[in-house]
Amino acid sequence: MKRKTALMVLTSLVLSCAAGVPAMAASWQQEVDGRYWYLKDNGSYPADEICEIDGKKYLFDASGYMLTGWQNFKGHTYSFDETGAMRTGWYQDGNVYYYLNEYSGEMTTGFQDVGNYTYYFNDEGKMQTGVIEVNGLHYRTLDGGQIIKDKKMKINGVYFSFDSNGVTSVYNKDYKKWMTVASNEDQVDEVKYKLEDDLNSGRLTRRQFEDEARRKLTQMDVSTAEINDFIQEVFDSYNWTYVPDQSYYEEMLDTWNSQWED
Questions:
Q1: Which CATH architecture has domain 129-182?
Q2: Can you give the pTM of this predicted structure?
Q3: What is the structure's pLDDT at 182?
């Protein structure tokens, strides 16, 4: 920053010795290494701050150089394009979507209303889709990330209900009531124990056990990964090989998408 410091000193001397001389025009300056900084009309420059210039916001480091890309500044995360201008609103980076506050540019995390829909962004600001678990509760989204609310539907024999906040409940036929995931955990453990006991006693064959585990646990809104892990664990105890039937889950997804109505 020697060049900038010298420029500021020179400017100060000139202004102090030449009353009535117009201030210099503010302009972007570029160093020989390609970095940019901004010369204000009073001869100073922004440093360690977000500064609005010609209707766009830019971030400058402690030395006064403009920054680009993802940046953390005073506890918040921002994104700046290749020209240094702050991004706002929806931003797609590869296959990942982010939402940057349209006024402050801060990266959004958690639940966020955008337009007429609610979305969920993880701690890294990435928009989540599919089944989302937050504080023990499940939510589901459309392909575009919109959380489903105020809806009931039946998918492969399982009844789902989504309240005004999007919290998912499933109708448990065995207990004859609607259950959220949080209230369902004890019953899930009980069902797993009963399934394994039925397999051990011979009341269920290997194939019947797998089908019943998938049917009953899906009905209780247990994730596909957890169901696979449970079946794998049981099969491992018998030294059996378990290969998840992916077509079953693909069929469920197709059914889900086909039954959704705006």
A1: Ribbon (2.10)
A2: 0.66
A3: 57
